[in-house]
Amino acid sequence: MMNSRRILWIGFILVLLGFLLPFLMVIRLIPSTFFINFFAFGSSIAGLYLGIIGASGLYVERRHKNRWMNEDWINSKRD
Predict the structure, then answer these.
(1) CB 48 within 8 A of CB 7
(2) Over the stretch 12-52, which tens digit does the pLDDT of each residue have?
(3) What predicted TM-score, i.e. pTM, was given to this entire model?
(4) What CA–CA distance (Å, rounded) separates 7 from 50?
(5) Which among 4, 18, 57, 73 is least surrounded, fewest beta carbons within 10 Å?
(6) Category of 33 on φ-ψ map: left (φ > 0), alpha (ψ -120 to 50) or beta
(7) pLDDT of residue 72
(8) Cβ neighbours for 4, distance < 8 A, ≥ 6 positions apart
(9) pLDDT confidence of residue 40
(10) DSSP per-residue codes, the chain
(11) Are residues 11 and 64 in contact, defined by beta-carbon separation less than 8 angstroms?
């Protein structure tokens, strides 16, 4: 299973690619073809979904870590 941070970074790179490809087409550094347009749109959408999944996974990991640390602290105060 992939790490949540890795998924978040892959999503960020895909969204950035989805921004840079159309930008490079607008300033005419690369030609505007159907494949590149479709790839830019797909990478932007996939990056958005992966970013949301990675951020929610990171939130869950931190929540479980904080909950475990709080329970450990509470149990040490009872003794």
Answers:
(1) no
(2) 999 999 999 999 999 999 999 999 999 999 999 999 999 99
(3) 0.78
(4) 6
(5) 73
(6) beta
(7) 59
(8) 54, 55, 57, 58, 60, 61
(9) 96
(10) ---HHHHHHHHHHHHHHHHHHHHHHHTTSS---HHHHHHHHHHHHHHHHHHHHHHHHHHHHHHHHHHHHHHHHHHHHH-
(11) no
- The C-alpha R_g of the chain, in whole angstroms, comes to 20
Asked whether 54 and 5 are in contact (CB, 8 A), the reply is yes
Q: How many CB atoms lie within 10 A of CB 29?
A: 8
Q: In the structure, what pLDDT confidence band is assigned to residue 64 with cuts at 50, 70 and 90? A: confident
> In whole angstroms, what separates CA 52 from the centre of its chain?
6
pLDDT score recorded for residue 71:
62
